[in-house]
Design brief:
The protein is of the alpha/beta class. The protein has ten helices and 15 strands. Helix 1 (11-22) packs across helix 7 (222-238), helix 2 (55-64) runs parallel beside helix 4 (86-106) and helix 4 runs parallel beside helix 5 (140-159).
């Protein structure tokens, strides 16, 4: 049995691949390297370069490696930019997922773990997001992830697809030297690049109704995330029941101010963040619970905030 990991050369995907291999499962990767890197792949894992929009490539890869399940991590993940590139976002995330599901159906592959997003919730009016929190995505990215979940649901009805979707907010840290978040939009790389360039990092708003006035968000370690992807794959292989979706959340979160202070301590680069105006629509606090995932997917927060920062900084700076 082999698991196809789409986007497996990316920051998150490569950690999932390493977790699969570490658990004794076989993996094969399809990635177009638009944001992934060959250097992120572990040695010996088969790789096919290409897009999930290429159904023929997907089916050839499935045939060549006796694929029995798919962990679908590939996607366009920039929520803010998706507002200005909606058609591209839908093509990559919706059309791509439909083509992948069609290839799976054609080859009789009946199990999928989908890397979804807490962006499906939008800005919920609750302190703790649960799987039952109303879905109200506020970007084409969030909408595309919700549609992806609908596609899986409908394929389950139509052809018996067995599946689950994993929703999460901010993924940070590193479990492998040299594998780091390359996104130009996420907080950790933004702060790291500013410090490495001699610039002062910025906080958007410090007058929120939170303990230190800065936004509180979920931050989870990428290795913990990868463990739960593998646990979901194992349950699907064993024919064990799964919920249609799980939140992978910390339950309490961390503030941007806390993160800035921790980064200063870990890097040894003292700084006082510049305070910029609030970004429109930014809620004070969004944190997800993880009780269902803890029950079924071996989910737990194995890393402290300091450990998240330390591993991320070490991976980025070598």
């Amino acid at each position: 049995m082999t698991w196809l990991v789409t986007g497996g050369a990316g920051y998150i995907g490569s950690h999932v691949v390493r977790a699969l291999v570490g658990a004794g499962l076989r993996a094969v990767v399809v990635d177009d390297l638009s944001s992934g890197r060959m250097a992120f792949l572990p040695t010996g894992v088969p790789f096919a370069r290409g897009s999930i929009l290429d159904g023929d490539l997907l089916m050839r890869t499935m045939d060549a490696h006796d694929v029995t399940g798919v962990i679908h991590v590939a996607g366009y993940k920039y929520a803010g930019v998706s507002v200005t590139r909606p058609l591209f976002t839908y093509e990559q995330n919706v059309t791509g997922t439909a083509i992948l599901l069609a290839a799976m159906q054609d080859r009789g592959i009946d199990r999928m773990v989908f890397s979804s997003s807490a962006a499906v919730y939008g800005t919920p009016d609750t302190d703790l997001v649960t799987e039952g929190t109303p879905k109200s995505p506020q970007s084409p990215y969030g909408e595309s992830k919700l549609i992806g979940e609908w596609l899986l649901r409908d394929q389950a009805v139509a052809v018996g697809l067995r599946h689950t979707s994993l929703r999460y907010f901010n993924v940070v840290g590193s479990g492998e030297g040299g594998v780091f978040d390359v996104s130009p939009h996420n907080l950790f790389p933004l702060v790291f690049e500013a410090l490495l360039d001699g610039r002062t990092p910025r906080i958007n708003g410090n007058d929120y109704p939170t303990p230190d006035g800065t936004n509180v968000r979920d931050y989870i370690h990428v290795s913990d995330l990868a463990v739960s992807h593998v646990a979901a794959a194992r349950r699907l292989d064993a024919g064990e029941p799964l919920e249609s979706a799980y939140n992978l959340g910390s339950g309490d979160g961390a503030s941007v101010g806390e993160i800035m202070s921790t980064i200063a301590e870990v890097t040894g680069i003292p700084f006082s963040p510049e305070i910029a105006p609030r970004r429109p629509g930014d809620p004070a606090r969004i944190v997800a619970g993880g009780a269902l995932a803890a029950r079924d997917l071996d989910w737990r927060m194995r890393h402290s905030l300091r450990e998240m920062v330390e591993s991320a900084w070490q991976a980025r700076t070598g």
